Amino acid sequence: VQLQACGGGLVQAGGCLRLSCAASGVTFSYTMAWFRQAPGKEREFVTAIRGNSGMKYYTESVEGRFTVSRDNTKNTVYLQMNSLKPEDTAVYYCAARQHWHLNYYYATNYILWGQGTLVTVSS
Questions:
Q1: What is the pLDDT of residue 121?
Q2: N or C terminus: which one in the chain shows less Cβ crowding within 10 Å?
């Protein structure tokens, strides 16, 4: 299994970006998630999309601004980020796990990780 994230970049506050995570060896039943890690901070949960049901979960700070989606035909998960704020600046990582976990928001519950893509939001 391999996860390849891309789409980061530099954007002004209020702007938007779309991140992609191409997953090889992953089926539609996998839970896919995005985490982020800002400089000097711990990795934090951003969003997850559950396999099969497609249910979505967001951390409160991105609710209404970020949207997670997946294209199972392409084995790709997307993170559409709108109304970006400087505090969204971080390295964004995609993650996957084969089975649903109630504590989906803990990074330690994922063993499959992409390499990370940097998002910088200027004020």
A1: 98
A2: C
Q: How far apart are CA 98 and CA 93, in angstroms?
A: 17
Task: Reply yes or no on whether the pLDDT at 1 is more than 90.
Answer: no
Angstrom distance (rounded) from CA 22 to CA 53:
20
Neighbours of 99 (CB within 10 A): 8
Number of neighbours of residue 119 by Cβ within 10 angstroms: 22
Q: Which of 114, 76, 112 is nearest to 93 (CA)?
A: 114
Q: Rounded to an integer, what distance in angstroms lies between the CA atom of residue 112 and that of residue 123?
A: 33
Q: Which residue do the tokens 């969003």 mark?
A: 47
Region of residue 73 (phi > 0: left; psi between -120 and 50: alpha; otherwise: beta)? alpha
Question: Per-residue pLDDT tens for 59-109?
Answer: 999 999 999 999 989 999 999 999 999 999 999 999 999 988 899 999 999
